[in-house]
């Protein structure tokens, strides 16, 4: 690779928290995924706002892989991949469970770490527990790289340098494109990784739910859909951000981590018009007033 190619590729980009962050959508959000995972404690909530400290941030990109709503923009952690190995280098940020699931989906089966640190062992263990529930091959943590030499391509010296030059040009061209075009945060969305599988279970308590629709409207993953005479609940879409649960006044929505076969649950509802504000609304049973009018309606003792 040319010197300019190396130089451009080595440039780092500042991370940015977009408006899709649940903490920016609602002050009631309790999500701490990026805060808990940041190895340098660079992400903090200050005065009700979430920010990335430029002084502490190393742009490792770990937060990008763990954000449940893909709200952090930047470059994900650069990883060295050889055949079906991830090669971790000294000083590099450890991959998250979501990142390991992503690479498993890409065909990676071994994680190489010469130090075999305990924290990484725990992450691989948790990843394998999820993979086992889906009956997929587990990841192996190794301290030696086992390459299949027979599968490696042999090329001439001239072809080697021709390929090297070509790769350098591709690197420069890709580096010169608008930075945001190169972001890949959506790659780590769990609902996109394993079709037919859900990573979270969504529980809706009809007895407490008033069908105010607040959590349905605010859900960034389209888990809830009201279609005339039914409420469709698709837990496959759930990313575990828990924003619906955080804002629910009745605490009728609960989210639990659980790997299971995806399913769409349907609840029968009634659609009618409010007799006071004339706004159409949904309810579990026949009602004259919408949830808003019901909450402000007071009996008139003078009639």
Describe this structure in words.
The protein folds into two domains: 3-190, 2-Layer Sandwich (Alpha-Beta Plaits), CATH 3.30.70; 198-296, Alpha-Beta Plaits, CATH 3.30.70.20. A four-stranded mixed β-sheet has the order 5-6-7-8, with no helix packed on it. Strands 10-11-13 form a three-stranded antiparallel β-sheet. 29% of the residues lie in helices and 21% in strands. With 303 residues, the protein is α+β, with helices and mostly antiparallel strands.
Question: What's the quick description here?
Answer:
By secondary structure, the chain is an alpha+beta fold. It is built from 11 helices and 15 strands. It is elongated and about 70 Å long.
Biggest sheet, strands in spatial order? Answer: 5-6-7-8
Cα distance spanning the termini: 87 Å
CATH architectural grouping of the largest domain: 2-Layer Sandwich
Give the proportion of residues in helices: 25-40%
Q: Tell me the fraction of residues in β-strands, as a range.
A: 15-25%
Total discrete domains: 2
List the helices and strands and how they pair.
Blueprint: H1 3-10, E1 16-17, H2 22-25, H3 33-37, E2 43-46, E3 49-52, H4 62-66, E4 72-73, E5 80-82, E6 85-87, H5 97-105, E7 110-112, H6 118-133, E8 140-142, H7 157-176, H8 190-193, E9 197-204, H9 214-218, E10 224-227, E11 230-234, H10 243-247, E12 253-261, E13 264-268, E14 270-273, E15 280-283, H11 291-296
Parallel strand pairs: 6-7, 7-8
Antiparallel strand pairs: 1-4, 2-3, 5-6, 9-12, 10-11, 11-13, 14-15
Helix pairs in contact: 1-7, 5-6
């Amino acid at each position: 690779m040319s010197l300019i190619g190396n130089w451009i590729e080595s440039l780092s980009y500042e991370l940015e928290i977009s408006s899709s962050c649940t903490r920016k959508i609602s002050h009631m959000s309790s999500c701490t995924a990026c805060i808990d995972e940041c190895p340098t404690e660079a992400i903090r909530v200050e005065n009700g706002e979430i920010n990335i400290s430029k002084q502490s941030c190393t742009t490792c990109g770990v937060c990008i892989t763990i954000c449940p709503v893909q709200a952090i923009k930047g470059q994900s952690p650069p990883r060295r991949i050889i055949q079906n190995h991830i090669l971790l280098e000294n000083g590099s940020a450890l991959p998250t469970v979501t990142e390991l699931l992503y690479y498993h989906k890409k065909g990676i089966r071994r994680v190489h770490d010469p130090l075999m640190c305990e924290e990484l062992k725990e992450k691989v263990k948790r990843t394998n527990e999820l993979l086992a529930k889906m009956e997929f091959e587990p990841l192996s943590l190794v301290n030696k790289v086992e390459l299949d030499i027979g599968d490696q391509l042999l090329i001439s010296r001239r072809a080697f340098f021709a390929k090297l030059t070509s790769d350098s040009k591709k690197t420069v061209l890709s580096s010169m494109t608008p930075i945001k075009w190169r972001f890949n945060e959506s790659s780590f969305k769990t609902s996109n990784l394993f079709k037919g599988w859900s990573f979270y279970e969504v529980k809706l308590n009809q007895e407490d739910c008033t069908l105010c629709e607040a959590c349905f409207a605010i859900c960034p993953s389209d888990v809830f859909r009201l279609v005339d005479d039914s409420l469709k609940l698709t837990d496959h879409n759930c990313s575990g951000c828990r924003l619906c649960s955080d804002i629910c006044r009745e605490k009728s929505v609960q989210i639990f981590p659980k790997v299971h076969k995806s399913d769409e649950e349907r609840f029968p509802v009634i659609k009618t018009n409010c007799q006071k504000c004339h706004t159409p609304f949904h309810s579990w049973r026949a009602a004259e007033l919408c949830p808003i009018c019901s909450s402000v309606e007071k009996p008139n003792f003078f009639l």
